[in-house]
Every structure is written in structure tokens, then in C-alpha cells.
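pinned: reference chain
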Amino acid sequence: MIPTATIDALEQCWQSLASVIGSLSEAQWKAPTDLPGWSVQDNLAHLVGTERMLQGLPGTAHRASPHEHVCNPIGEMNEHEIDARRPMPGSEVADEWLQLAALRLHTLRTADDAYFQQPAATPTGPGTIADFLHIRVLDCWLHEQDMRRAVHSPGNLSGPAAELTIDRLVRTIPIVVGKRAATPEGGAVAITVYGGVDRSLVCEVQGGRAALISRPSRPPLATIGLDTESFVVLAAGRRGSDEVAAHVSGDRALAQRVLSQFNMMI
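pinned: its C-alpha cells
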């Protein structure tokens, strides 16, 4: 099956990204982001490198010098593509991205079922091209938000790409509430996300396992409220719990354990 909704979300994200990068000054391109060692331009260069790979285009022959923020082989591969573009003006990286995004969308819009069912090594393990694209929406949207925060241009906090990303991140909440925060047996934590993507979530521990449920068997031990941007920077590991505003009630120690262990990124 052709993943039309996923492609639509990816296109919406790329259109939003295009509206951000179209008017950036060179100083804004070089502005640091929440990702260690990466500027606004570096975030876009990362997207360029990955989409070139997905399109079957050759990668760079450039090899970056070691950096402290590079911790694994995937990070090293990313850094080669990013570092190859660091000497370029941001506007040139933007032009490369816009042309590549148009090419990728044409490929995705004209591909058949067989294309999307091809095996692919995704960041979460073996899957298909369709599976990879679903994760790709998350990656592109998160980096768009990284860039927007760095240049003080908030936006695109609702809509298809934002909703897909939040819902993928939400899948990890049982691990956060149960295993990491050690919520006691029979206890529940309620988490509300608002101001963009609105979600009301309850995670309860039963039989030693935490799970998202429609309603708790008893009042939640703790409740946490986060606006969409705060949820994202915590869940994506961009910032720590001491750097965001969270509304907490009930067992504050439990709530703080949840918030301090909120990084859900693979």
C-alpha cells in the first residue's frame, strides 16, 4: 500500500521548512541550535545528506575531522555530509535542499507499491521504505523545530507532521513512566499536551508493566502538563527538565522522575 498520509505529512513539513529558510541571514544560518556542534545550516545539511541517500544519490567523499559530539558510526556518516557543506553560504545549502526536496517528492508521488515495500534498515530496526518514511517525518519535523527555535521563528506546532511526531514519541511513555520513573504497581501518571498538538494521556502500571490506557483504575498519582514545544524538547532530548516549564500536581517527586527521564529518542 502506498503510504499517502505519510507522504502528505512529509510534504507539509518540507513546505513549512521552506518558509523558514527562505529569508535567513548568514548570521542566522550559522546560529547554534540545541544539538551540540550543529548550527541551523548543519541541521539542513543533515537533512540533505539523508535525502540524497534515500534518493540513491552518491554521498560525499569528504571526511570530517573527529568532533566530541559524534558518538557512533551513524553520527560519523552524518558529520561527513554536514562538514562538507560548512564552508558554503547557507543560501547554497538551502538551494540544494529545495531542489532535492522537489525531486524526492516527485519520486514518492510516482512510486508504486513495490517501491514502498522494499526492505530498509530503519533507525528502529529492519523494516520497509514505508516504515523509514514514517520515521523520516519525525526526523524532518524535529530538525525544522530545532532550526525555528534557533532563529526565534516558532511555527508548525500543529498539523500532520507535528501530530505524527508527537504520536510516535508517545509510544515510549510507558517505558518512561514504568521502567525509568519506577511508578509503583497500580499507580498512574496523567500527561496532558496542549498548545499545538493536544493529547490527554494516562499511563498506568498493572502486573509490573506500564501501558497507556483510556482511564485509570484510580486517580493518577501525578499529573503533568506540557505545551507542545516543551513536550518535544524533552522527548527529543534537546533540553533537560530544568529548562522547560511543566505544570505538575500530585506526587511531585514522581512527576519529576518522569520529566527527568523523558528523553524518548532512539
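why pinned: Residues 4-166 form a domain with the Four Helix Bundle (Hemerythrin (Met), subunit A) fold (CATH 1.20.120.450). The chain has eleven helices and seven strands.
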